[in-house]
Amino acid sequence: MSVPFEITGTDHLGFVVGNARQAAIYYQERFGFTPVAYRGLETGSRDASAWVLRQGKITLVLETPLKPDHHLNTHLARHGDAVQDIAFLVDDARRAWEWTTGHGARSVRGPEVREDAHGRVLLATIATYGDTTHTFVQRDGYRGVFLPGYEPVAPTQPVEGAGLEFVDHIVGNQGDREMERVARWYEEVFGFHRIWTVDDKDVSTAHSALRSIVVASANERIKMPINEPADGLKKSQIQEYVEANFGPGVQHAAMYTRDIVATVERLRRHGVEFLEIPDTYYETLLDRVGPIDEDVDVLRRHGILVDRDDSGYLLQLFTRPLQDRPTLFFEIIQRRGARSFGKGNFKALFESIEREQARRGNL
Ligand code: FE2
Predict the structure, then answer these.
(1) Is residue 159 part of a domain?
(2) Ligand 1 centroid to 41 CA: how many Å?
(3) CATH code at position 121
(4) 159 with 28: CB under 8 angstroms?
Protein backbone atom coordinates (compact mmCIF):
# COMPACT_ATOMS: atom_id res chain seq x y z
CA MET A 1 0.00 0.00 0.00
CA SER A 2 1.40 3.40 -0.88
CA VAL A 3 0.93 6.34 1.45
CA PRO A 4 0.67 10.03 0.44
CA PHE A 5 3.83 11.12 2.28
CA GLU A 6 7.45 10.04 2.29
CA ILE A 7 9.70 9.25 5.24
CA THR A 8 13.19 10.25 4.17
CA GLY A 9 14.99 9.08 7.31
CA THR A 10 15.20 9.01 11.08
CA ASP A 11 15.18 12.65 12.18
CA HIS A 12 16.16 11.88 15.76
CA LEU A 13 15.80 9.48 18.66
CA GLY A 14 14.12 11.15 21.62
CA PHE A 15 15.20 9.85 25.02
CA VAL A 16 13.64 10.64 28.39
CA VAL A 17 16.35 10.47 31.05
CA GLY A 18 16.75 11.41 34.71
CA ASN A 19 19.60 13.85 34.13
CA ALA A 20 20.09 14.96 30.54
CA ARG A 21 23.18 17.03 31.31
CA GLN A 22 25.02 13.97 32.61
CA ALA A 23 23.60 11.57 30.00
CA ALA A 24 24.89 13.92 27.29
CA ILE A 25 28.41 13.50 28.63
CA TYR A 26 28.00 9.71 28.59
CA TYR A 27 26.95 9.60 24.92
CA GLN A 28 29.64 12.14 24.05
CA GLU A 29 32.53 10.49 25.85
CA ARG A 30 31.61 6.83 25.31
CA PHE A 31 30.07 6.94 21.82
CA GLY A 32 31.53 10.06 20.20
CA PHE A 33 28.35 12.15 19.83
CA THR A 34 28.91 15.92 19.76
CA PRO A 35 26.56 18.17 21.75
CA VAL A 36 25.11 20.69 19.29
CA ALA A 37 22.02 22.23 20.90
CA TYR A 38 20.33 22.77 24.24
CA ARG A 39 17.20 24.13 25.80
CA GLY A 40 16.63 24.62 29.49
CA LEU A 41 16.24 27.31 32.12
CA GLU A 42 18.88 29.51 30.46
CA THR A 43 16.94 29.52 27.19
CA GLY A 44 13.54 30.08 28.78
CA SER A 45 12.46 26.42 28.87
CA ARG A 46 11.05 26.21 32.41
CA ASP A 47 9.47 22.72 32.36
CA ALA A 48 12.11 20.50 30.79
CA SER A 49 15.67 20.62 29.58
CA ALA A 50 17.01 18.85 26.51
CA TRP A 51 20.45 18.23 25.07
CA VAL A 52 20.87 17.43 21.38
CA LEU A 53 23.87 15.38 20.25
CA ARG A 54 24.89 14.50 16.74
CA GLN A 55 27.21 12.12 14.90
CA GLY A 56 26.96 11.71 11.14
CA LYS A 57 23.23 11.76 10.40
CA ILE A 58 22.33 10.41 13.86
CA THR A 59 20.70 12.87 16.26
CA LEU A 60 19.96 12.00 19.89
CA VAL A 61 17.73 14.24 22.00
CA LEU A 62 18.04 13.69 25.75
CA GLU A 63 15.19 15.28 27.69
CA THR A 64 14.65 15.65 31.43
CA PRO A 65 11.55 17.05 33.14
CA LEU A 66 12.28 19.87 35.60
CA LYS A 67 8.97 19.81 37.47
CA PRO A 68 7.12 17.03 39.30
CA ASP A 69 3.90 17.44 37.28
CA HIS A 70 5.62 17.25 33.86
CA HIS A 71 4.07 14.52 31.71
CA LEU A 72 7.44 12.90 30.96
CA ASN A 73 7.79 11.92 34.64
CA THR A 74 5.30 9.12 34.03
CA HIS A 75 7.58 7.70 31.32
CA LEU A 76 10.66 8.13 33.47
CA ALA A 77 9.14 6.46 36.55
CA ARG A 78 7.82 3.52 34.59
CA HIS A 79 10.59 2.84 32.10
CA GLY A 80 13.69 4.51 33.53
CA ASP A 81 16.04 6.15 31.03
CA ALA A 82 14.61 5.07 27.67
CA VAL A 83 13.87 5.99 24.07
CA GLN A 84 10.45 7.61 24.12
CA ASP A 85 10.17 8.99 20.57
CA ILE A 86 11.34 7.75 17.18
CA ALA A 87 11.10 10.88 15.04
CA PHE A 88 10.73 10.53 11.29
CA LEU A 89 11.87 13.15 8.80
CA VAL A 90 8.98 13.57 6.36
CA ASP A 91 8.15 15.65 3.30
CA ASP A 92 4.70 16.60 4.66
CA ALA A 93 4.05 16.30 8.41
CA ARG A 94 0.42 17.40 8.19
CA ARG A 95 -0.38 14.81 5.56
CA ALA A 96 1.56 12.13 7.50
CA TRP A 97 -0.43 12.92 10.65
CA GLU A 98 -3.77 13.02 8.81
CA TRP A 99 -3.11 9.77 6.98
CA THR A 100 -1.80 7.79 9.96
CA THR A 101 -4.49 9.00 12.37
CA GLY A 102 -7.04 8.25 9.66
CA HIS A 103 -5.75 4.68 9.45
CA GLY A 104 -5.79 3.70 13.10
CA ALA A 105 -3.04 5.67 14.84
CA ARG A 106 -3.83 7.66 17.99
CA SER A 107 -2.80 11.31 17.84
CA VAL A 108 -0.59 12.62 20.63
CA ARG A 109 -0.12 16.14 19.22
CA GLY A 110 -1.70 17.54 16.10
CA PRO A 111 0.29 19.47 13.49
CA GLU A 112 2.05 22.47 14.99
CA VAL A 113 4.21 25.11 13.29
CA ARG A 114 7.28 26.28 15.19
CA GLU A 115 9.29 29.24 13.98
CA ASP A 116 12.31 31.27 14.88
CA ALA A 117 14.81 33.49 13.08
CA HIS A 118 16.21 30.40 11.28
CA GLY A 119 12.96 29.38 9.63
CA ARG A 120 9.97 27.15 10.30
CA VAL A 121 9.28 23.50 10.96
CA LEU A 122 6.07 21.53 11.18
CA LEU A 123 5.74 18.84 13.87
CA ALA A 124 3.05 16.27 14.68
CA THR A 125 3.14 13.20 16.92
CA ILE A 126 1.30 9.87 17.06
CA ALA A 127 1.42 6.96 19.52
CA THR A 128 2.90 3.56 18.64
CA TYR A 129 3.71 0.50 20.79
CA GLY A 130 3.85 0.87 24.57
CA ASP A 131 4.47 4.48 25.55
CA THR A 132 6.58 5.10 22.45
CA THR A 133 5.68 7.80 19.92
CA HIS A 134 6.54 8.79 16.37
CA THR A 135 7.00 12.49 15.71
CA PHE A 136 6.80 13.67 12.11
CA VAL A 137 9.34 16.42 11.43
CA GLN A 138 8.98 18.56 8.32
CA ARG A 139 11.93 20.91 8.13
CA ASP A 140 11.04 23.14 5.16
CA GLY A 141 14.64 24.27 4.76
CA TYR A 142 14.98 25.17 8.45
CA ARG A 143 18.51 26.55 8.97
CA GLY A 144 18.82 26.37 12.77
CA VAL A 145 20.96 23.80 14.54
CA PHE A 146 18.02 21.55 15.53
CA LEU A 147 14.54 22.96 16.13
CA PRO A 148 13.09 26.33 17.16
CA GLY A 149 13.53 26.79 20.92
CA TYR A 150 17.02 25.29 20.98
CA GLU A 151 20.25 27.22 21.16
CA PRO A 152 23.56 26.01 19.75
CA VAL A 153 26.16 24.68 22.18
CA ALA A 154 29.76 23.61 21.73
CA PRO A 155 31.44 20.77 23.61
CA THR A 156 33.66 21.84 26.50
CA GLN A 157 36.40 19.58 25.20
CA PRO A 158 37.14 18.09 21.77
CA VAL A 159 34.99 15.08 20.84
CA GLU A 160 36.57 12.08 19.15
CA GLY A 161 33.89 10.73 16.80
CA ALA A 162 33.42 6.99 16.33
CA GLY A 163 32.46 6.91 12.67
CA LEU A 164 28.76 6.25 13.34
CA GLU A 165 26.89 7.48 10.27
CA PHE A 166 23.16 6.77 10.41
CA VAL A 167 20.49 4.71 12.14
CA ASP A 168 20.33 1.37 10.30
CA HIS A 169 17.32 0.00 12.18
CA ILE A 170 15.37 0.41 15.42
CA VAL A 171 13.99 -2.61 17.25
CA GLY A 172 10.80 -2.70 19.31
CA ASN A 173 10.20 -5.42 21.89
CA GLN A 174 6.61 -6.48 22.46
CA GLY A 175 4.80 -8.64 24.97
CA ASP A 176 3.54 -12.17 24.39
CA ARG A 177 1.73 -12.68 21.07
CA GLU A 178 1.84 -8.94 20.26
CA MET A 179 4.34 -9.01 17.36
CA GLU A 180 1.86 -9.81 14.59
CA ARG A 181 -0.56 -7.11 15.73
CA VAL A 182 2.18 -4.48 15.87
CA ALA A 183 3.65 -5.50 12.49
CA ARG A 184 0.19 -5.28 10.94
CA TRP A 185 -0.26 -1.83 12.53
CA TYR A 186 2.84 -0.59 10.69
CA GLU A 187 1.50 -2.07 7.46
CA GLU A 188 -1.91 -0.44 7.85
CA VAL A 189 -0.89 2.89 9.37
CA PHE A 190 2.40 3.52 7.54
CA GLY A 191 2.14 1.32 4.45
CA PHE A 192 5.31 -0.49 5.61
CA HIS A 193 6.11 -3.90 4.11
CA ARG A 194 7.68 -6.99 5.64
CA ILE A 195 11.27 -7.60 4.60
CA TRP A 196 12.46 -10.34 6.96
CA THR A 197 11.17 -12.69 9.63
CA VAL A 198 12.55 -14.98 12.29
CA ASP A 199 10.53 -17.69 13.95
CA ASP A 200 11.40 -19.69 17.00
CA LYS A 201 12.73 -22.60 14.95
CA ASP A 202 15.38 -20.30 13.50
CA VAL A 203 16.40 -18.79 16.77
CA SER A 204 16.46 -20.72 19.93
CA THR A 205 19.13 -21.80 22.27
CA ALA A 206 18.51 -24.39 24.92
CA HIS A 207 16.95 -21.70 27.03
CA SER A 208 15.56 -18.67 25.29
CA ALA A 209 13.98 -17.73 22.02
CA LEU A 210 12.32 -14.92 20.13
CA ARG A 211 10.24 -14.26 17.06
CA SER A 212 10.77 -11.20 14.88
CA ILE A 213 9.17 -9.49 11.89
CA VAL A 214 11.03 -6.63 10.21
CA VAL A 215 8.81 -3.96 8.69
CA ALA A 216 10.23 -1.24 6.44
CA SER A 217 9.13 1.93 4.68
CA ALA A 218 8.70 1.79 0.89
CA ASN A 219 12.17 3.31 0.35
CA GLU A 220 13.59 1.11 3.17
CA ARG A 221 15.20 4.11 4.86
CA ILE A 222 13.25 3.02 7.95
CA LYS A 223 13.64 -0.58 9.08
CA MET A 224 11.96 -1.70 12.28
CA PRO A 225 12.29 -5.24 13.60
CA ILE A 226 9.39 -6.09 15.91
CA ASN A 227 10.20 -8.82 18.47
CA GLU A 228 8.17 -10.95 20.83
CA PRO A 229 9.31 -13.64 23.26
CA ALA A 230 9.05 -17.30 22.30
CA ASP A 231 8.85 -20.20 24.70
CA GLY A 232 12.12 -21.77 25.75
CA LEU A 233 13.28 -23.75 28.72
CA LYS A 234 13.99 -20.51 30.52
CA LYS A 235 13.05 -16.88 30.26
CA SER A 236 13.40 -15.21 26.85
CA GLN A 237 15.60 -12.09 26.77
CA ILE A 238 12.56 -10.34 25.26
CA GLN A 239 10.52 -11.29 28.31
CA GLU A 240 13.30 -9.99 30.56
CA TYR A 241 13.20 -6.69 28.66
CA VAL A 242 9.41 -6.34 28.86
CA GLU A 243 9.49 -7.01 32.60
CA ALA A 244 12.38 -4.59 33.24
CA ASN A 245 10.79 -1.93 31.03
CA PHE A 246 7.29 -2.52 32.43
CA GLY A 247 5.93 -2.87 28.94
CA PRO A 248 6.93 -2.77 25.28
CA GLY A 249 9.61 -0.35 24.12
CA VAL A 250 12.71 0.25 22.04
CA GLN A 251 15.21 -2.56 22.60
CA HIS A 252 18.08 -1.40 20.43
CA ALA A 253 19.10 1.13 17.85
CA ALA A 254 21.60 -0.08 15.26
CA MET A 255 24.19 2.50 14.17
CA TYR A 256 25.86 2.10 10.79
CA THR A 257 29.60 2.46 10.30
CA ARG A 258 31.65 1.93 7.15
CA ASP A 259 34.63 0.69 9.20
CA ILE A 260 33.48 -1.41 12.11
CA VAL A 261 36.99 -2.33 13.25
CA ALA A 262 38.03 1.33 13.59
CA THR A 263 34.70 2.21 15.22
CA VAL A 264 34.90 -0.57 17.78
CA GLU A 265 38.55 0.14 18.58
CA ARG A 266 37.57 3.72 19.36
CA LEU A 267 34.48 2.73 21.38
CA ARG A 268 36.39 0.17 23.46
CA ARG A 269 39.15 2.73 24.11
CA HIS A 270 36.46 4.99 25.57
CA GLY A 271 35.03 2.31 27.82
CA VAL A 272 32.06 0.96 25.83
CA GLU A 273 31.30 -2.60 26.94
CA PHE A 274 30.10 -5.17 24.42
CA LEU A 275 28.61 -8.62 24.75
CA GLU A 276 31.36 -11.18 25.04
CA ILE A 277 31.61 -13.74 22.27
CA PRO A 278 33.41 -17.04 22.97
CA ASP A 279 36.53 -17.88 20.94
CA THR A 280 34.77 -20.99 19.62
CA TYR A 281 32.55 -18.70 17.51
CA TYR A 282 35.59 -17.76 15.43
CA GLU A 283 36.98 -21.27 15.01
CA THR A 284 34.29 -22.16 12.48
CA LEU A 285 33.45 -18.64 11.28
CA LEU A 286 34.82 -18.93 7.74
CA ASP A 287 33.12 -22.31 7.27
CA ARG A 288 29.83 -20.63 8.03
CA VAL A 289 30.17 -17.34 6.13
CA GLY A 290 32.73 -18.06 3.41
CA PRO A 291 35.53 -15.66 2.43
CA ILE A 292 35.54 -12.17 3.99
CA ASP A 293 37.92 -9.23 3.61
CA GLU A 294 38.53 -8.80 7.33
CA ASP A 295 41.15 -10.59 9.41
CA VAL A 296 39.41 -13.13 11.63
CA ASP A 297 41.91 -12.53 14.44
CA VAL A 298 41.04 -8.82 14.48
CA LEU A 299 37.33 -9.65 14.56
CA ARG A 300 37.92 -12.12 17.39
CA ARG A 301 39.89 -9.56 19.39
CA HIS A 302 36.99 -7.10 19.18
CA GLY A 303 34.15 -9.61 19.44
CA ILE A 304 32.75 -8.61 16.02
CA LEU A 305 30.22 -11.05 14.54
CA VAL A 306 29.73 -11.88 10.84
CA ASP A 307 26.72 -13.22 8.95
CA ARG A 308 25.98 -13.75 5.28
CA ASP A 309 22.79 -13.66 3.22
CA ASP A 310 22.03 -13.85 -0.51
CA SER A 311 23.29 -10.31 -1.19
CA GLY A 312 26.50 -10.20 0.82
CA TYR A 313 27.67 -10.18 4.40
CA LEU A 314 27.45 -7.96 7.45
CA LEU A 315 29.53 -7.32 10.54
CA GLN A 316 27.87 -6.42 13.83
CA LEU A 317 28.19 -6.36 17.59
CA PHE A 318 26.09 -5.33 20.52
CA THR A 319 26.76 -3.23 23.59
CA ARG A 320 25.73 -4.22 27.07
CA PRO A 321 22.60 -2.37 28.29
CA LEU A 322 23.21 1.39 28.48
CA GLN A 323 21.49 1.84 31.84
CA ASP A 324 20.98 -0.18 35.03
CA ARG A 325 17.86 -1.88 33.72
CA PRO A 326 18.51 -4.57 31.05
CA THR A 327 16.60 -2.55 28.47
CA LEU A 328 18.09 -0.31 25.75
CA PHE A 329 21.38 -1.15 24.05
CA PHE A 330 23.13 -0.14 20.81
CA GLU A 331 24.17 -2.31 17.90
CA ILE A 332 27.11 -1.32 15.69
CA ILE A 333 26.70 -2.63 12.13
CA GLN A 334 28.66 -2.54 8.89
CA ARG A 335 26.96 -3.93 5.80
CA ARG A 336 28.99 -5.42 2.98
CA GLY A 337 26.03 -6.08 0.74
CA ALA A 338 23.89 -8.01 3.21
CA ARG A 339 20.40 -6.61 3.73
CA SER A 340 19.37 -8.87 6.63
CA PHE A 341 19.88 -8.70 10.38
CA GLY A 342 22.32 -11.40 11.43
CA LYS A 343 20.15 -14.46 11.95
CA GLY A 344 23.24 -16.68 11.88
CA ASN A 345 24.58 -14.84 14.94
CA PHE A 346 21.51 -15.17 17.10
CA LYS A 347 22.59 -18.43 18.71
CA ALA A 348 26.01 -17.11 19.79
CA LEU A 349 24.44 -13.87 20.91
CA PHE A 350 21.67 -15.47 22.89
CA GLU A 351 24.13 -17.69 24.70
CA SER A 352 26.10 -14.58 25.59
CA ILE A 353 22.95 -12.74 26.73
CA GLU A 354 21.86 -15.76 28.76
CA ARG A 355 25.11 -15.69 30.70
CA GLU A 356 24.36 -12.06 31.58
CA GLN A 357 20.70 -12.80 32.37
CA ALA A 358 21.87 -15.47 34.79
CA ARG A 359 24.12 -12.93 36.53
CA ARG A 360 21.10 -10.61 36.84
CA GLY A 361 19.00 -13.41 38.34
CA ASN A 362 16.64 -13.24 35.35
CA LEU A 363 16.99 -16.62 33.63
FE1 FE2 B 1 19.68 -5.31 15.21
Answers:
(1) no
(2) 37
(3) 3.10.180.10
(4) yes
